[in-house]
Structure formats: structure tokens, C-alpha cells
Amino acid sequence: MRHDGTNEVVSRLRILQIGTHYPFHIYGDEVFGGVENNLKQCVDVLSSQYQLQAIGYNTRNETRRYERDGVPVIACASLGKFSSQWVSLRLIWEIARAKPDIIHLHAPEVLGMLAVLFFHRRTPLVITHHLDIVRQRFLRLFVRPFYRVVLKRAKVVIVYTKKYAEMSEELIAVSDRVAVVPHGTREDELILLPGEQEAALEEKKKLFGSSNVVAFLGRHVGYKGIDYLIEAMVELPEIQLMIGGGGEKTAEWQALSKARGLEARVHFIGNIKTAEARRKFYAMSDLFVLPSLTRSESFGQVLVEAQLSGLPVLTTETGSGNTEIVQDGKTGYVVPPADAFALAKSIKMAFSDDAKRNEMRDNALANAKARYTDRQCGVALLEVFGKVAASTG
Fold it and tell me: What mean pLDDT do residues 375-389 have?
């Protein structure tokens, strides 16, 4: 049987997916994020041609085995987190006893990486490098030597954008094995159904009157930079800010909003859990802002979602993939990170020139449709694994 990754069925090959959490795991805890969603997308795409298994962490000290969409999942008992990394001896044991034909490691995932290094030296390895470790200095010093060995063993290292690969210190030595496969966005889930646009605009008028609405959606963690966006609102008295999502920084940002006297114009609307609610959120918005502070924001999928929803976007230059999605003056606005004044200035500019804003919005929509939908990215992912499968014999 040939393994060329095109039309030939390669269902006998087993691929082990190793990540932090598998979304929708048995307890239904809030473990959604870019890495988790990409893991699920990889499983969805690759399961059309391969046998899949996923191993990750449970958020509790209990190992659970279950099946999701025909894919067996092991959520390994964990002892909690240390330096932002989950700790589980069970995960190492489960990986050690697995017998895959190919391993797909979602990095940085420290214990998974060590298990692969010591127990699967001969198994073909594909790594998706989601981001560099930039904030946890001790962890970075400990992990880097091991990770460089694992990277050299990989047949392919997947990154979301060419720019991130060029900026990453970790990937310099393996630049010849890098493949760019963006995280695909489901365009069909963002298409407004009949009546949804009208209902969203009616609610927007009820909540915000005739004000323009700036929006953010994502996890509430420090590197998202929402504190700077809230500070920028002080200079934008005619603008309303809608903040979706939740996390460890929510209470702090709410307190900052109150301290700046902005409670009437900064609205925390909580997590958005359905496709319908996501469409409504974007339909109620006039400008989407992702004010990231560091390269921990390696891709910014919400930027693509906003573009596919017909919104102009604004982001920051952190040396990550954000500015591959958003080119300043062409498909959106780009400002320096950690600069509330620059954010306020660009938001004012966006609403002062309708023609330019609409031109960039149209450019962004065309670019997102051409490069970042799940269909294009799924084809690219299958091509990568088809080549690896062929090389295994």
C-alpha cells in the first residue's frame, strides 16, 4: 500500500496526538485555547485518513479514557501546574506504552516531549511548534537543551506563520524542516443565518445606542494586553468596548475599568460558547482589536475570525504571526505593543476614514478566505503527514 497523502487510504497507520488537553474532555472544564483547538482540528482532519489517538492531561487527579468523534482519548491524572506546565507521571507512562507509527507532538509540552525523547527514539516525529517559552525563564533554561534534541529528531516542524519561524530562536537550527500550516478557521460557522444580522444590530442599538463598538475576544491572560486597551478608552469618550472571554485577569481588568471611571463604556460579556453567539458578537462590533504584548500570541486566530466576519482589525507588532495576518495599511492596523496612546490614536483613525477602513476590511476578507480557512489548512496538513507517512515505508 502506498502512503502518498493524496487519494490513497492510509488508515492502517496510527498517529498519536500529544497535547495539553483535548477539548470537550469528560468533565467539560474550560480548557479551550489555541493549542487545544488546534489539536482538535488536527484530529478532525487526519482522522479522515489515519487511525488517531490523543493523550493529554485531565484537570483533576484522575485518569479518564473515553472516545470522542470515534477517536480514543486518554486524559491523564494530573497533580496540577508548575511554571504553567501540567504535571503528570501517568502521561509519561501512557506515552511510553503507546505503539504509534507516527507521533504528533504539540509543543511546548514538556513531559510529553521528555516521554517522546526517552521512549520513542525510532518513531517518526512531527512537531507543531505553537510558541516559544518566553515568560517562564527557569522553565526555558531547563527545557531548551532537551527540546533542541527533540527538534533535530523531527521529520517536520509545523508553524502557523513564516514570520514566527523566522523570529523563533528555537527553530533556527531546523529551518530546513519547517512547514507553514496555519490554524484553519471554520468559515461556515461565521456566516450569519437569516435574521441574525438584524437581531444583532437591534441589540447593539439597545445596549450601545449609536456609539461605535470596539471588541476583543479571547482568554483573559496577561499577554493579551487588555489593560492597555482599557487605558486607551480614557481617550475615546464616544467609543464602547466589548470584552468577550474570561480567565485569571478578568477581575483585575474589571477593577481597572472601574478605577478609570469606565464601567458605563467597558462591557465584560463573559465566555462565548456557541457558534451562534460568536456570530452575534462579531455582528455587534465595528472594529476588532487584539493588543497582544508578546510572542506568546503566536497566531491570533480571532483576527482571522473577525476578518471572515467582515470586520476591520487592529493588532500589535510583537514579532509573531499577528502581522502576517494583518499588514498595516493593507489588511488592518498595526501599532507597537504596550502603548495605550498608540491604540487610542489608531482607533480614532479607523473611525475617521470610512473609505480606508472599508478598503482594508475588504482586503482582509479576501486574504483570510484565500489563506486561513479550515479547507486550505486541512489540505496543507494532510500533505505534510502524507510525506511523513511515505517516508516510513
Answer: 96
